[in-house]
Amino acid sequence: MDFFQHQAKAKSRTFLLIFLYSLGLLGLTIVMEMATLIFFAAVETEPDPAMMILCIGGVIALVIGGSLFKTAQLSQGGGRAIAESLGGRQVFPSSTDPADRRLYNVVEEMSLASGIPVPALYIMDNEKSINAFAAGFSPNAAVIGVNRGTVDLLTRDELQGVIAHEFAHILNGDMRMNLRLIGILFGLQLLAIIGYYALRLAAMGDGGRSRGGNKKGGGVVPAIIGVGLALMIIGYIGVFFSAIIKAAISRQREYLADASAVQFTRNPDGIVGAFKKIGAVGSGLKHANAAEASHLFFGNTCGLFSLGGLLATHPDLTTRIRRIDPRFDGRFPKISDIRPLKPSDFSHDFSRRVKAQNSRPTLASKESVIEHISELTAANVLSAAAMLREIPKPVAVSADNPLTAQAVLFAMLLDLDETIRNRQLTQIKTNCVPFLFEETQRLYPQICTLPEHEKIPLAQHVSATFREMTRQQYIQFSKVLNLLIAADQKMDIFEYTIKAVLHRDLDIYFGLAKQLRVKFTAMPQVRMQVRAVLSYLAYAGHTAMEEASGAFSAAMKELGLPEEILRPFETTNTQFECSLRTLAETSPALKKQIFSAFMTCVWYDGKITPKEAGLIRAIAAMLAIPMPVLS
């Protein structure tokens, strides 16, 4: 199953979620009706239909309203909202803590290897157990969070196994569904939550009277207790259905992510070692918000309310290990045998102890490019680590600081033509602090000699560093970036690729653009945008008009569209970019068709030029398609 199929299948699970949610709502309605009848029987009064309708309608409104409220709340913050609600601390590339750096390096290598932006990274410092999660609405807006115990107790191989598991959730399209689960299930659990806080309020009021407080209104506290207990009892029907829904949707995805982690790392001992340490130390979370996010995590966060594992969000730990290592005897290490790692232990590096060959996927054919979309393999990870190590040390150090990282990117975009370069430097001097102007000049000699395929991972590294900026700093940086690109009054493919890699994700991160949503599911809805991009591609890869028309026609024939190629003067950079932004909002199945046609166009003459390869990478970035660095 490829990237697009995984995304489509994840979307189809929405119907299962809606069906199960409806069952939960029906269950709550039935229980509320029974509770109302019991109440009327207790007070020996005939049931009042209006009162029953009011109570049942109120419960339905409360549940649906709670689900809509939580979903809207999550749509604003995405994965970051989850991480911060669990007490997470964001880890940036500039961190000097050895454990933070090791974790960041593992995540960055896998990001580059799979072709997605480096996820925002969080550590829950108050959680000493071993656990991790991935959350977000798309691979381009992913967040990975880990417990403190994960970075302190796991070797690099074990840590890599856990992170690979989370990347499987990112690439398999699980994250969006998991976030929707939190929002929707909140409504089903809301009655129990209200009942819980009502009991707490009653306890506080009763405590005040016990200490000699105001004794008036003595009947209020018992009434609150009664209402709280009733809501708790009825509400736990919603909690029960929430557990069923989580178990139905989450458990099989965990098996798939475990298998994918082994495939990605080619090192089953890594993830198995992490599981065994969880068996000794545990994976539970203490935070009050852990329960609502339990299905996101690598391991079980709590063992309550699982009916012996029947309603558990995760499969049994022993079963997960034996699926990878059938020889496992069921014995876990002792807690006393697991010691926190020291900074000196972090020098052990899986990616460095194996000689990294240049094993990047090659542009052998159209099919090979599509096959490598979102591909994450051990060879790719090693190759990504090697590319990151090839970045000159002074440049790498500057790339970790949000101020000097701007100079790294400015230097990357300086033109080889001295006249244009001086024009660009003038823009930096005019619009930036003097330090940035001097730093750009210092870094330029080291960066200008880097081949373009090495500048891409550097740009991705810098993109993660920019998250330390304020929103206003990022807006100012973007302004200067656009001025540098416009200095020669044209935008080449490399410049557009860098701009696409940065802006597609950072604009969303800083709230300047909305999360991608599927708006188009049929080819006729986007045929003009497809025509515009294919025309641009055809002219970019073929100098002769006849060849360009042939490439365009071959791609359009594959899509079943009759349009003719645009004339050269009609294909502008602005039109190209606007068309891609529209195509980014197509469904996974439609996006696959369109991207395949793009590959047909560039492969029309049997080869892909460096310019075309750069365009394909820029297009993939704009369409949120994970594209590993290709050689």
Account of the protein in words:
- This protein is mostly helical.
- The chain folds into 3 domains: 3-85 and 175-323, no CATH class; 390-509, no CATH class; 523-622.
- 64% of the residues lie in helices and 3% in strands.
- It has 24 helices and 4 strands.
- It has helices at residues 3-42, 49-85, 98-114, 148-153, 156-171, 174-210, 220-265, 268-281, 317-324, 350-353, 366-371, 378-390, 393-399, 404-413, 418-431, 434-447, 452-465, 471-485, 493-509, 527-541, 545-559, 573-583, 588-602, 610-622, and strands spanning 89-91, 120-124, 132-135, 143-147.
- The protein has a 4-stranded mixed beta sheet with strand order 1-2-4-3, with helices on both faces.
- Strand 3 (132-135) and strand 4 form a beta hairpin.
- Helix 19 (493-509) packs parallel to helix 24.
- The longest helix is centred in the middle third of the chain and has 46 residues, at 220-265.
- The model is unreliable at 348-359 (pLDDT under 50).
Structure summarized in a few sentences:
With 631 residues, the chain is mainly α. The protein contains 24 helices and 4 strands. It folds into 3 domains: 3-85 and 175-323, no CATH class; 390-509, no CATH class; 523-622.
Structural class: mainly alpha
Give the number of domains: 3
Strand-residue fraction?
Answer: under 5%
How are the strands of the largest sheet arranged?
1-2-4-3
N-to-C SSE string, H for helix and E for strand: HHEHEEEHHHHHHHHHHHHHHHHHHHHH
Number of strands: 4
Number of helices: 24
- What overall geometry do the principal axes of the alpha carbons give? globular
Euclidean distance between termini CA atoms: 24 Å
* Uncertain spans: 348-359
Q: State Rg.
A: 28 Å
Helix content: 55-70%
* Largest beta-sheet characterization: 4 strands, mixed
What's the pLDDT, averaged over the residues? 82
